[in-house]
Specification:
With about 325 residues, the chain is of the alpha/beta class. It has helices spanning about 30-45, 60, 75-85, 95-100, 105-115, 135-145, 170-175, 180-190, 205-210, 295-310; strands at about 1-5, 15-20, 50-55, 90-95, 115-120, 150, 190-200, 215, 225-235, 240-245, 260-265, 275-285. Helix 1 links the parallel strand 2 and strand 3.
């Protein structure tokens, strides 16, 4: 899969494309259906599939300070798209100047002149151009002028998380913020993951017999609600069952919110300075303040037991 940043990196001899455009935060199940359809149609047409996305999130440029919590960083989104069979991912730097492009200018510069679009696949709520003036109806009209067609997919999620509502990153973010990582996984199609570098903390876990990886998460990451979770800690290619704590460690009067993962039954791990990821499988309990260290240790032992059982069952 090719990865481009900006229109100038697209090869001049790039042929006809089947394109889909969006932020694609999290590459959730709705995104997967759209991208998968673009890949399938490209193969059928003898064209190549391209996903167009933006960095930073458009809201941060249009309304500074409104950046939504991110479900996945750009490099992971690209990896997830590549796994779906995409031929190329084009990341467009979203600047104030770029935000001023009219819908017609956006179509001409990106879809027509650069990517030579043959077909564009989108969801029904797709908007584009200055002040989000363009919609799928206008896109189809412009396609008629510029020799490309438009296919619109209606995307809905069933089950406890969605109840027939459309797939959306907003829904996934809300479920994560509530600690409902099972519901979020229904939307995402996989457990929610955060990543970052392991940094030194207070090292209380080590003193208590449960050494944790204190993960300095990436900016704007969607962090689950405070509490204890079962999941996995991944270092390189090694995925280890873990008990995960999110919160301020109220037993020790902490004030800084952290994500800490204890790799179950692993001894002697030295992860400081390493880039790791943490996947959230299930919510175990809320964050509590214990009166004694003994009470805390009893609860931690129970947390680890439950986390081990849950991860073993997957």
């Amino acid at each position: 899969m090719q990865r481009w940043r900006g229109l100038t990196e697209v090869p001049e001899d790039w042929g006809r494309s089947v394109v889909t455009i969006g932020s694609f935060d999290g590459v959730h199940q709705g995104h997967q259906l759209i991208i998968g359809r673009a890949v399938d149609r490209a193969r059928a047409l003898g064209a190549r599939s391209v996903v167009v996305t933006f960095d930073p999130h458009p809201s941060e440029v249009v309304r500074p300070g409104s950046h939504p919590p991110l479900l996945a960083p750009h490099h992971r989104r690209a990896d997830l798209m590549g796994a779906l069979g995409v031929d190329a991912v084009l990341v467009l730097p979203f600047t104030s100047e770029f935000s001023q492009l009219s819908a017609e200018e956006f179509v001409r510069q990106v879809l027509v002149d650069c990517l030579h679009a043959q077909l564009v696949v989108e969801g029904p709520n797709f908007r584009f151009g200055h002040r989000a003036a363009g919609n799928v109806e206008l896109l189809a009209e412009l396609g008629g002028r510029h020799d490309f067609t438009v296919e619109v997919l209606d995307l809905r999620i069933t089950g406890a998380a969605g109840d027939g509502a459309p797939f959306s990153s907003t829904l996934a973010r809300r479920l994560i913020a509530e600690g409902d990582v099972v519901g979020a996984a229904e939307v995402l199609g996989r457990p929610h993951q955060v990543e970052g570098v392991v940094v030194r903390g207070a090292q209380r876990g080590r003193e208590l017999g449960y050494p944790t990886a204190n993960v300095e998460t990436l900016p704007h990451t969607a962090i689950p609600a405070d509490g204890v979770y079962a999941g996995w800690l991944t270092v390189g290619q090694e995925r280890m069952p873990a008990a995960i704590s999110v919160g301020t460690n109220p037993t020790f009067d902490g004030t800084e919110r952290t994500v800490e993962a204890y790799a179950i039954d692993r001894v002697g791990l030295d992860l400081y300075g390493l880039h790791v990821s943490v996947d959230f499988l299930a919510y175990l309990r809320g964050m509590e303040k214990f009166d004694t260290i003994e009470a805390l240790l009893d609860r931690m032992a129970d947390d680890v037991k439950r986390a081990r059982e849950l991860t073993d069952a997957v």
